[in-house]
């Protein structure tokens, strides 16, 4: 099939590459000419495991091409994916200006039937808005479909190639048949293509992400209460997770969620509710608790060193909002850095992938180390913000030798308390007892 993808951000690039992998002819459109030239040369602009292999293979096979011309992209594709930014507005709502702006151009440019697919995460009612904007100028038939993505950063390629489910919001039999044909190679194992109305499809994405964010936040609240009463959140988590009604996933406490999806989607659903005279009280609490949770280690640090951190140096392991990505959007580590700098501390950081992105924000205000042990040099303590695998089994002898004071503030509960107690390290985590060396 001939597919065009408008926008080559995280969702657009993964979508285009994976659709090319099943034999489709894909043209990706982006307004950034420099970015397009780099992609044509085989350079992947984002870090995502396994994407580079598929990207290179499909470019060589001429199934994946790039252009800055929207007209070229629209002429090529029978199915047009809109994978455009929907950034958070000041009031928490999703900014649809990119989506509606391109939709207006689509109406002026299309000359034969197209299926326009909303791939971006958008509020309920967006498909109708897109249809109305295109219809103002279109001289041919078209349909608008809602097809939300459920990609986890760090696992996006697997999630696209082996989806648990595909949601298609469509009131058109013609468009639905084309979408089923497109996705048939991805559901050979029997996972469903769920066809529903456009509004239900749009809400499905927001509801799923908001539920997962709520589950994380609830566990963080339980962890905070564990600290008050002397319970162990690890034991509570296991006791809860073995209940099949609850499940084991998303029960790990820490310093809050971040990224491009959960924070934005929870706020957008909360704001959409307000716009429709519905108060999502639960989501308001999730937003508030997560904001506080991101700096949950700061009181522990100040209790240990005092509120004035001038003259103290802290090493930070992990900057990305989660492992296996270079994405720092809404990352708890950034909140931590801001708080520590404001308190007068000196900051040294290390992350396997995200340092280049963080450098754009802080430049020379913090030190970027070459390795996870180099970052510890001259540091008074270590703070863990992201659970990269390389941080799970460190050489504690090296850690103690490098640190001025052998103390760890662990925002991701990476280490077993019994194991860390044997290492003669002072250790603070989330929802568990403190270990004093």
3D structure, described in words:
With 437 residues, the chain is of the alpha/beta class. It has helices at residues 10-21, 33-40, 51-60, 70-76, 97-109, 126-135, 156-161, 173-183, 198-229, 233-241, 262-275, 281-293, 297-305, 332-342, 355-362, 396-402, 417-421, and strands at residues 2-6, 25-29, 64-67, 79-82, 114-118, 142-146, 166-169, 193-196, 313-317, 346-350, 367-368, 381-384, 407-410, 426-428. The strands form 3 sheets. It has a 6-stranded parallel sheet, with helices on both faces. It has a 6-stranded parallel sheet with strand order 11-10-9-12-13-14, covered by helices on one side. Helix 1 crosses helix 3 (51-60) and helix 9 crosses helix 11 (262-275). The mean pLDDT is 96.
* Assembly annotation: single chain
Main pleated-sheet profile? 6 strands, parallel
What percent of residues adopt helix (DSSP H or I)?
40-55%
If you average the pLDDT, what whole number results?
Answer: 96
In percent, how much strand structure appears in the residues?
Answer: 5-15%
Q: Give the CA-CA distance, first to last residue.
A: 63 Å
Low-confidence stretches: none
Query: Based on DSSP secondary structure assignment, what is the total number of beta strands?
Result: 14
Q: Name the structural class.
A: alpha/beta
Q: What coarse outline follows from CA principal-axis ratios?
A: globular
The order of strands across the largest sheet is 3-2-1-4-5-6
Radius of gyration: 24 Å
Number of helices: 17
């Amino acid at each position: 099939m001939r597919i065009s993808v408008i926008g080559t951000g995280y969702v657009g690039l993964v979508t285009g590459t994976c659709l090319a992998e099943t034999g489709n002819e894909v043209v990706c459109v982006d307004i950034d000419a420099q970015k397009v030239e780099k992609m044509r040369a085989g350079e992947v602009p984002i870090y995502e495991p396994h994407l580079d292999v598929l990207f290179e293979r499909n470019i060589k096979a001429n199934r994946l091409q790039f252009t800055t011309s929207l007209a070229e992209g629209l002429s090529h594709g029978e199915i047009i994916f809109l994978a455009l930014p929907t950034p958070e507005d000041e009031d928490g709502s999703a900014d649809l200006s990119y989506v509606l702006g391109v939709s207006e151009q689509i109406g002026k440019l299309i000359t034969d039937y197209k299926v326009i697919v909303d791939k971006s995460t958008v509020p309920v009612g967006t498909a109708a808005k897109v249809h109305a904007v295109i219809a103002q100028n279109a001289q041919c038939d078209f349909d608008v479909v809602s097809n939300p993505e459920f990609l986890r950063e760090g696992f996006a390629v697997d999630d696209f190639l082996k989806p648990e489910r595909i949601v298609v919001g469509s009131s058109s039999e013609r468009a639905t048949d084309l979408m089923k044909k497109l996705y048939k190679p991805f559901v050979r194992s029997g996972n469903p293509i769920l066809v529903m109305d456009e509004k239900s499809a749009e809400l499905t994405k927001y509801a799923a992400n908001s539920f997962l964010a709520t589950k994380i936040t609830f566990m963080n609240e339980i962890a905070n209460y564990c600290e008050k009463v002397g319970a162990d959140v690890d034991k509570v988590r296991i006791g809860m997770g073995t209940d099949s009604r609850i499940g084991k996933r998303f029960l790990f406490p820490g310093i809050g969620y971040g990224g491009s999806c959960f924070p934005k989607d929870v706020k957008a659903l909360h704001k959409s509710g307000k716009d429709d005279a519905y108060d999502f009280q639960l989501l308001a609490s999730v937003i508030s608790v997560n904001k506080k949770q991101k700096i949950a280690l700061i009181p522990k640090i100040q209790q240990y060193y005092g509120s004035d951190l001038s003259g103290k140096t802290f090493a930070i392991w992990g900057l990305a909002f989660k492992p296996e990505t270079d994405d720092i959007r809404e990352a708890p580590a950034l909140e931590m850095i801001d708080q520590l700098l404001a308190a007068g501390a000196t900051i040294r950081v290390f992350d396997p992938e995200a340092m280049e992105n963080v450098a754009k924000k802080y430049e020379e205000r913090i030190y970027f180390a070459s390795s996870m042990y180099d970052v510890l040099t001259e540091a008074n303590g270590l703070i863990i913000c992201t659970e990269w695998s390389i941080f799970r089994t460190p050489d504690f002898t090296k850690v103690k030798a490098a640190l001025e004071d052998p103390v760890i503030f662990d925002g991701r509960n990476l280490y077993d308390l019994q194991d860390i107690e044997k290492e003669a390290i002072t250790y603070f985590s989330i929802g568990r007892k403190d270990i004093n060396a």
